[in-house]
Structure formats: structure tokens, C-alpha cells
Amino acid sequence: MIRNLNVGAALMLACSAFAGCSTPDPTAYSGLASAAQLRPNVTDKTGRVPYRYQTNVDWNRYTKIIVDPVTIYNGPDNQFGKVPEKDKVLLANYMQQQFTEKLKTRFAIVSVAAPATLRLHLTLTGAKATTAVLGTVSHIDVAGGLYNTVQAARGREGSMTGSVNYAVEIYDATSNRLLSSYVTKQYPNAMNIGASFSAMDASMVGVRKGADALLAELK
């Protein structure tokens, strides 16, 4: 028990001193096509969607969607840190698959612009891997478990857990008019131990959560 408490104290100290428990918040990435339109999202209380642009649009007008290939952002303000290229490609491919699968429950997935068609462009802008071993230990350790319980209740990140940052840009496919855009950070529930076993698990959970969130918004 004493050893567990010591590990937990060390984890909490690391979080306080080095901000190791949280991952970088997304910015209005300068290389995005919609960067000039993005504004601070004052209605967001979660910190997940800090910048947004939104027009007055009736999503029910649209029945089809083009899902562009996911772009991996390489601007100087990217937030990949030390994530290797192979993991960026893994996440981009996973994002493409997950968003397409979710959106096809609401839209017909098409490849040609036509009336009543949206075009979705996703840009993977950053990610952080779960810290090896410590990510799992912080969930089962006494003090770490308490910290993560509080974080889960607040809807915030767990300790030593990874995340994914990306941008969403939605256009009218025929006019190419930007209808909505935002940048977001997604991550697992702080008590999700299963998302802490391997480096990219948490980021992949974040991708799935992000796909669900977009689908809900477009319904």
C-alpha cells in the first residue's frame, strides 16, 4: 500500500510540475484552409473544441457526403511531438475508416459533387502517445485512481494518457462554400484503463469519440 501511494504521489507531482498528465490543446493552426475564419469558441466549456467557425446551415438539406482523404498536418505549429511517422499514418487511416463508417449511417457516401452533398475534410494535426507503463499504473494506483476519478467526473484527461488533435472542415460540395469548421482534442474517459495499454490506444479511442460527436452534430 505504501509503495502504491508513493508511486501515486510521484505521478501527481510529475503532473503538477511538468504538465505530463495533459496533452497540448489544439490551436487555430495557421496552415488550415479555414484558419482565417476560426474564432475562439466561447460556448465550449469542455476545452475539447477551443476554436470554431459556424454558418447558419440546415444539415437536413444534405443527404450525401464526400469524405476527403485525411491530411496529416505538417505545419510548424503541428502538435505531434515525438509521434513517429508510421503512427501518424496509422491514425490518419483509422480516422478515415471510422468517420466514413459513422457518417454512412446518416449520409450516402459519394465521390462526386452534386446537389444536397457535403464535403468533409479532416486534418490530423497532433497526437500524443500514452506514456508506457505509467499510463496503466496511474489508473490502478490508489492516488492515481483518485486523480482519474476526479478527471472523469470533470470530463477531462486522465493521467499519462494520450490524445488526438485534428481539424474538421465541412463544405457544400457543389459551391465549395465553407459551412463549418473547428479544431478539437479528443481523448478517452479518464477511467478507461483499456485505452492505456498501448501507445496509440488512447488516440484511437479519441478518433472514435470524435466521429460520434460529428455524427451527432450533423443529425
Describe the structure in your own words.
The chain is an alpha/beta fold. The chain has a domain of 147 residues: Rossmann fold. The chain is built from five helices and eight strands. Strand 7 and strand 8 form a beta hairpin. Helix 1 packs across helix 4 and helix 3 packs across helix 4. It is globular and about 45 Å long. The protein starts with a helix and ends with a helix. The N terminus is likely disordered.
Give a topology summary.
Elements lengths: L1 H17 L20 E2 L10 E4 L9 E4 L3 E2 L12 H19 L4 E2 L7 E12 L5 H7 L1 H13 L8 E10 L5 E9 L14 H18 L1
Parallel strand pairs: 3-5, 3-6, 4-6
Antiparallel strand pairs: 1-2, 2-8, 6-7, 7-8
Determine Rg (CA atoms, Å): 18 Å
Content of β-strand: 15-25%
Question: Given the helix and strand composition, which structural class is it?
Answer: alpha/beta
Shape: globular
State the major sheet: 8 strands, mixed
CATH fold-type name of the domain at 35-129 and 158-186 and 196-218: Rossmann fold
CATH hierarchy, class of the domain at 35-129 and 158-186 and 196-218: Alpha Beta
Summed up, the helix count is 5
